[in-house]
Amino acid sequence: MPSRDPDRPNILFILTDDQGPWAMGCARTPELQTPNLDRLAASGARFENFFCASPVCSPARASILTGQIPSQHGVQDFLEKGNSDQLPRDGRSVQFMKGASSYVQVLAANGYECGLSGKWHLGDSAAPQLGFDFWNVHGAGGGDYNDAPMFTDGSLYYPNGYVTDVITDHAIGFLEDQSASDQPFSLNVHYTAPHSPWEEGQHPQSLFDQYFNNCDFASIPDEPIHPNQVALRQMVGYTPELRREALSGYFASITAMDAQVGRLLDWLEARNLLESTLVVFTSDNGMNMGHHGIWGKGNATYPQNMFDTAVKVPSLASQPGRVPAGQVRGEMLSQYDFRPTILEWLGLQDVTGLNLPGSSFAAELAGAPAQANRPVVVYDEYGPTRMIRTGRLKYVHRYPDGPNEFYDLEDDPNEKANMVDDPSRSIDIAQLRSQLEEWFLRYVDPEIDGAAQPNVGCGQIDRIDSGEEAFLGELVFGTKGP
């Protein structure tokens, strides 16, 4: 039986794809049904100011696992190529994570059984990497929800069924295999939900119909399309009918995923493992579903956007007996804080000499009052676009020549008024820019500095240090998709 020791707990890390920070019932979106996420929040902590390291999937996922920022680990856009030479639409396998260090490797070295079920999307999907032993992963990272391409034991296969259910089936299979072991486990369950596609037929019909026929989506802004919107592969949001279809599919995918989270929690509860398992739930990046007139995440516009709806992520954590129930925390936290937090929570020493930017929030997770010495600033990057965010102020700097943005979030929480040219805020802007530049100078690897890359959000196809072209660069704007 897996560990029952609350001081040497198991880890269940659940990661979704493109879930906005608003996209849970417990996050003040009452029309979205997420009873199991609400249950998880009620049993532990919900963090209201949790930020991704980059508002697009692959860089954020690499940062969660390594604790590094994209300008350190080198994955700086979603991987359009390099996932596998066995995939017909890809044709190459690239180990983007070769030489990287992950917190999972530290756990494995300390006796944890480590598994990954679901989305990897960090290159060479056929090969287990970064400390995972159990490996049953999505081949590409996105696409149709039925009969999705998966890899296990180095081989590509296409399991029948809805991919959210398939990922959970594999995760529970891993858990069942641990039942005969007295070693603790660390299981990452990475869903592709609620990433597009959202049209009818992709998600359980009863859920789609429930939202399409009965929901008015009153909590979701209905605004004109943003002038910098990049065309999507599927027509999304451009008419009232398309808006209703997209939101119905998005909501349906989350409610379907929520049911699978319930299966995982029920498995732990039935075996009396909830008190000895730290359950973390979060997303790789946020999502605009009409917010700001944008449909998508950071790369839904060009230049890439850093609106809070794109850079904030939902974040829940529970371990009854160690994490006080019902907490709603307001600390400024980032995905690069996960590595030090998990290792401190488990009482494990990290690898030295890595120059990691994060700091542990284990004390806050355990219910400690807000710490006076806790960093009150978070940073974000997407290629040449960088952000510094305090509790009140946000500055977005784009290299080399802008356009830049500045918001006072106390007066303008919805980021409607860009005050970067307001002379009365010039001192604030200069201070934030200096702080941003000093921080990134401290942590970037100059050889792969994202600010110097031709990354326009169209996808990464090779390692930056490969000597080959690393990024795609063709943009299409407006309603005419590629």
Describe this structure in words.
This protein is of the alpha/beta class. The protein has one domain: Alkaline Phosphatase, subunit A (3-Layer(aba) Sandwich), CATH 3.40.720. It has helices at 35-43, 57-66, 70-73, 103-109, 163-178, 205-214, 240-270, 308-311, 338-346, 362-365, 426-443, and strands at 10-16, 45-47, 50-51, 83-84, 92-93, 113-119, 134-138, 150-152, 155-157, 185-190, 277-283, 288-289, 295-296, 315-318, 327-329, 333-334, 377-382, 385-390, 393-398, 405-408. It has a ten-stranded mixed β-sheet with strand order 9-8-7-6-10-1-11-14-2-15, sandwiched between helices. Strand 4 (83-84) and strand 5 form a beta hairpin. Helix 5 (163-178) runs parallel beside helix 7 (240-270) and helix 6 crosses helix 7 (240-270). The radius of gyration is 21 Å and the shape is globular. The mean pLDDT is 96.
Give the tags.
Alkaline Phosphatase, subunit A, 20 strands, 4-stranded antiparallel β-sheet, alpha/beta, 25% helix, single chain, 11 helices, globular, 482 residues
